[in-house]
Amino acid sequence: MEVEERQSELVEQFVMLAKSARGRAAAELIAHATSHPSLFAFAELLAMPHIGELQGTEHSSSLDVLKLFAHGTWSDYKCNASNLPQLLPQQQLKLKQLTVLTLAETTKVLPYDLLMRELDVSNVRDLEDLLINDCMYAGIVRGKLDQCRRCFEVSFAAGRDLRPGQLENMMQTLENWLAKSEFLLSNIQEKIKWADGMNESDKRHKKEVEEKQEEVRKSVKAELELRGHQELAYMESGPLVVNYMDEERARPKRR
Hints:
Blueprint: H1 2-18, H2 24-35, H3 43-46, H4 49-52, H5 60-71, H6 74-79, H7 89-106, E1 109-111, H8 112-119, H9 124-136, E2 141-146, E3 151-157, H10 166-250
Antiparallel strand pairs: 1-3, 2-3
Helix pairs in contact: 2-5
């Protein structure tokens, strides 16, 4: 958050200066902005009227430099170095930092070979020093250096100024994401509805089973009670018959 606040303050300062700077003063302001160690956003400065007035003048190359820092990379500079002013060491470092941010936009695992080629760095030691001292310590990226896999794993990267046409692409990407999200949400709601229906069906089935079980229990209980009454009646009447027969046997017979 401190880096973002500092960035906003710097942008406001340079925008205020650009309101009155013209010609050579505007060109010098661009050189100062692109050399500042803590400034990484240039779109608002580029949009200032007096800055745009440099187009087609003797200072138009300064405007090209500002466009490079707003949207370009170190490779872009090398390809057009003959048409641009010689960059100061501070500007060269700044452009390489911005290049790391651009690379981090497309992938979160940056191979060392790719970084060394895009940053024009000849060995791993210099590359790691640049990533640690000039990128991570500056707060514009966070990540882990994996020397075994020879790559930089990016966990956070500050955003750069939007390039021409990039906003439309971002909006299209967001619209596609929204459409997919709505489709997934609809599917989830359908599955929830189906699950609720199955739950109600299970409850009804469970209730039916419990009712049938209760009916069976009542039926068995009634049958057991009926059998108990029958056996009791038998037991109550059975001994009387036996006693009567025993008495008949015990009587002496008349001759």
